[in-house]
Give the backbone structure.
Amino acid sequence: MTVPDSTGRTRALGACAAAVCALLLTGCGSTVTGQPVAARPSTVRHIAAGLTTLLPEPAQFPARYPAVVLPPEAAAQAAGDLNGVIRGATVRPEGCAPDEQQFGPDHTAIAVGSDETSRATLTVELTRTRQPLSTLREQVLRCGEMRVARAGATTTVSTELDPPPPLDADDTLALRRTVAPDVGGPGLTQTMRTLVGQVGDVRIAVTYMTFSDAPPDTAALDELFTTAVRKVREA
């Protein structure tokens, strides 16, 4: 959120004074130039369909990733895995913790496909939000590295933006994220590639996650993200 400075408040008060003078015909002698600009809407378009119905069907996941839809409690756990911040954790710097997330059929819906051979997953997360996707982009830019602590365990969560995918959505972004525990070891660092899009008040995030050093399956990620965005857009 941007807080206007004193110059901004002075300009706003000056504009109000000019308008009052004109209405009262007191001869202020001020002329306001320029063209009126329409204010941007403060809310995003509502998508009426239920989130669970907007998830890709398990059969629409890439063949190597047999999928299931998670119940609300499991979805809450999965959401913490995807952003690297489990519930109840302390996050530093301040202001970098993800927004508090609600769970339930009209708040969050998650489907996960797993490749047991590579220990990789593809996850589709749909969330209902009143915020534009730009708020997430700004947070990633501010919070490229976070320290997350809970129950005596501490991890470093590092996030970078990639070029956004060119899809027909209100907005899109791409990010890379690693979650590295202070007490490390082989197979303990979590790496993710996430594509995010927004259509109206539905945010679509598709994440490829693995604990191995193998190259990410970007073809499967792109395919599933395209499917997920299209299904929401056509709702």
Remarks:
- Helices lie at 6-24, 51-54, 72-83, 134-142, 218-233.
- The beta strands are 67-69, 90-92, 108-115, 120-128, 145-150, 153-162, 171-181, 190-199, 202-210.
